[in-house]
Amino acid sequence: MKIKAIGAIAILLIIIGASCQSDDQIEFKRYYSGGSLVYQQHCQNCHGDKGQGLSALIPPLTDSIYLKNNKRKLACFIKNGLKGKITVAGRSFDDQMQPDDIAPLEIAKVLTYVTNSFGNKMGTVTLQQVQDDLKNCQ
Predict the structure, then answer these.
(1) 0.70 exceeded by the pTM?
(2) Integer distance in angstroms from the first to the last C-alpha of the chain?
(3) What are the helix (H) ranges across the chain?
(4) Apex CA 85: angle with CA 79 and CA 88, to 5°?
(5) What distance in Å separates the CA atoms of residue 26 and residue 20, rounded to the nearest whole number?
(6) Contact present, 122 and 68 (Cβ < 8 Å)
(7) Residue 98 CA neighbour count, 13 Å, CB half
(8) 77 and 68 Cβ atoms separated by less than 8 Å
(9) Residue 98, SS3?
(10) What is the pLDDT of residue 1?
């Protein structure tokens, strides 16, 4: 009987321990879910519901390499728009992305969503990172 009680307590402690989340995990989920809403409102119309882009006009958001190589510029692209030729997933795009005057927190959330969706896994983009990146926009 004692062994069963100890076993039950041990299993309960394992379940409780596994269900606990760190502050980083909670913050990621908060940013990611908020970013999903921002994406739907501001980005999905052009970039698609699965980040697939639009043919030769609008680049996809599925190219992890492009996102990683431009991680420090992504906030600027959202805030100030993007002009000129870029190459994403081996294809060239030369259309203009319009600026979007959303708050830095919304930018952090949507970047967390985009950089962790559509096959991407890049972790949380924090408000502080976005504020730092926006100071360096060209």
Answers:
(1) yes
(2) 71
(3) 2-19, 23-42, 44-47, 64-69, 74-80, 104-114, 127-135
(4) 85
(5) 10
(6) yes
(7) 8
(8) no
(9) coil
(10) 66
Q: Cα-Cα-Cα-Cα dihedral of 74, 31, 50, 53, to 10°?
A: -20
Across the range 115-128, mean pLDDT stands at: 96
Report how far residue 16's alpha carbon sits from residue 20's, in angstroms, rounded to the nearest whole number.
6
How far apart are the C-alpha atoms of 20 and 4, rounded to whole Å? 24
Residue with tokens 């809403």: 37
Residue 72, pLDDT score: 96
What is the Cα–Cα distance from 128 to 126, expressed in whole angstroms?
A: 5
- Give 85-90's long-range contacts (Cβ < 8 A, gap of 24+): 86/59, 88/53, 88/59, 88/60, 88/63, 89/59, 89/60, 89/62, 89/63
